[in-house]
Fold this sequence. Notes:
Shape: elongated
Strand order of the largest sheet: 1-2
Largest sheet: 2 strands, antiparallel
Helix content: 40-55%
Number of helices: 3
Amino acid sequence: ERTIAIDVHRNWLVPEGGGLVFEGWDFGGQAQYHTSHSPYLSPRCLVALVFRPIGDDEQYLSAAQLMQDFLQTWFQMLHVHVPSSTIVLVCTRWGSPPAGVDLEQHQEQVLALCEEVTEAVAVELTLLNARTVKELGDLRGQEEEATKGVAEEEARIKESGQKLGEDGKDKDGGHGLPGQSKEQQDWKDLRSIAAQLQKRLRVVTAEPEAGSEGAAQ
Length: 217
């Protein structure tokens, strides 16, 4: 049965799991739902990408088809939002061959397909990891430049005799009001840019935000 957007399954008890209970979020795999998934992705989750080896026409799919139509999109989405996530590939229909196909022959076909998918995924992950390394280098350079700009603007503000608190307010309590100086506005803009870069750095390096669940105490 097709999943509409997201189905949430609560209080799943793991057999022989010592009382381990977890919550499952079943995301619809169709393209029209992809934009709704990103807010619910978390680095503290186990992601299971479930795929069928057989299409709607009951014909076996190729690894290239699965990558192009399904898996590649999900790997790229996970790379952007939760690059440190743990991913498990799950292939269905192990015991359900198409009509007229012997079960043993079917399982051999599925095993061969899974091996091809594994190889294709390894190539995709290599490319994504290389992209992550480049992004990390770019982010660190941009964050360093923005932080340096903040310090320079602070120095200019002090030299001009203006006061600007750590909360981003000028001495009159303004927040980018018409009377605010160019130095004050530039300082606030650079602080905002630096904060956004630092937030993305935490995502890429899998560091929790201060005060968030899982942050170091």
